[in-house]
Amino acid sequence: MAYKALYRTWRPQKFQDIVGQQHITRTLQNALLQGKVAHAYLFCGPRGTGKTTTAKVLAKALNCLEPASGEPCNHCQNCLAVNEGNSVDVVEIDAASNRGIDEIRDLRERVKFTPSTGRRKVYIIDEVHMLTDQAFNALLKTLEEPPGHVVFVLATTEAHKVPVTILSRCQRFDFRRIKPAEMVERLREVAKGAAIEVNEEALWLIAKAAEGGLRDALSILDQGAAFAVDTVTAGDIHSILGTVQQDILQSMVKFLADGKTGEALQLVSKLADLGKDLRLFTREMTTFLRDLLVDSIEGRGTGEQISNDNLFYLLKLLVQAEQDMKWSSQPGLVLELALVKASRPELGGSLEALTQRVAELERQLASGTLPRSRAPEITMPAEPNPTPTPPSPSRTDPTEEKVPVTPVNKTIKEGISPEKTSLHVGGEDVSGVVRQGWPDLMGDIKNGKKPLWILLNETKPSLEAQGNIVTLFFEDDFDVRRADKPEYKKYLEWLLGKHFSGSWEVRCVHAKKPPLSTLKPEEDPVYTEAVRIFGKDLVILENDPSETGGVK
Ligand SMILES: [Zn+2]
């Protein structure tokens, strides 16, 4: 026996089984009981909300040989004929297919014939808004002088596309989206009846994903049952839908609220690697943020500790990103830009700054230099405020707004106390600060671990620090192998923690990089950081960085 989809097997056979549309089913039952059934109905509403199902129950109730309380009996020959889809008196026309056009064309001729077995001939026209003008005209003529034995049920998801001349001749019913709670109840019934084991979380997830359409919900449950090993879980449903678990959405919101841009981008990269659709993910994020905002406004505790303003800001950015992603050839980049902006509200609207930042973070992602561990507490703003400083005397072109590099340098320098230094970590380039403290560190190494000191003193690796990861670049692969020992790395990590506080990770890699002593002024990390934030055009080198405490 061929497999029959759940939504077909479990299609309601009576008015009382139709979920969430009591305002319609009750009216229809009353009309049936009082013999006041209209000759044309228009059923409007979103897909999967029960329009066709209701039309069929109505058709059965009209022709049932043993109706009770306005309900069809479902076992007389007329009811069975409709249930089996071979009733000659109930005609279903799908206006969306070409077949519908021909059927409407000679509808006028055929409606004249009286029903063969039942009392009424029922024409159900699905997606009626798809009819051509010609077909609408043919239909209109029939509706103007309807034979007494004919009932039309026109169903549509887009009532505004139905000509007003047709609308005015129909009794209109608006089907509403089915509420999640109602949907869950029905899903539970169906699952029980079909012997499908499904947990509560999965049921709610299905109900939410179906967005008010029961047919879609049942399809998802169907897939879930086929996919799951035994019990259908939320994880199974996420796999089917390509959506992500709630905790991933929670993590992302937290990263954004905490300004952890690197972690946010890493998460997106991970999702992309897992084959998740980033557009869908963005959509999920907007729904999730919306729910958080509504909960927060209505005073339901979320424990997230994010202000409404911030939630609103994040939501606005992601709604925009979702829109933009539809038209972009690089939807991933659009999302990344939005996440950078979301986690760095201070960056505001400078597209150039954002683009540069994304490019930089992508580079870090690719090279694996982004921090993996939790970032230590943030106590020092390593980034300068991007508002332009007052004009400096060295400016030659008054029309250009240039940011002198000295204040940037100062900002970083002044944040460091000689005793204990806490760095702003979490993906930022803190190479300048670490390089500056390196001679002191070497002093400690000389006393604490002589072999390592000899190695470092001999090979003079160049150094980069991103977030809480310090990378040492050795020119010779052999030196990498000498330095890349757990014992040395642990020691260096401990020492870095002692000098700069927080937890650190040390990596030794083989790469040709200019040694520390030969850095040109343009290679000053402070200068490159400033360029990274403001763009090359906005940053000028005012004086030799070596004189202002830059890299020696
Ligand atoms: Zn019957």
From TrEMBL:
Compositional bias of kind Pro residues: 383-393
Enzyme Commission (EC) number: 2.7.7.7
Domain AAA+ ATPase, residue spans: 37-179
Classification via CDD domains: AAA (cd00009), HLD_clamp_pol_III_gamma_tau (cd18137)
Lipid biosynthesis as UniProt keyword: no
Region (Disordered): 365-404
Protein family according to the UniProt entry: Belongs to the DnaX/STICHEL family.
Name the record gives this protein: DNA-directed DNA polymerase
Organism for this UniProt entry: Desulforamulus aeronauticus DSM 10349
Organism placement in taxonomy: Bacteria, Bacillati, Bacillota, Clostridia, Eubacteriales
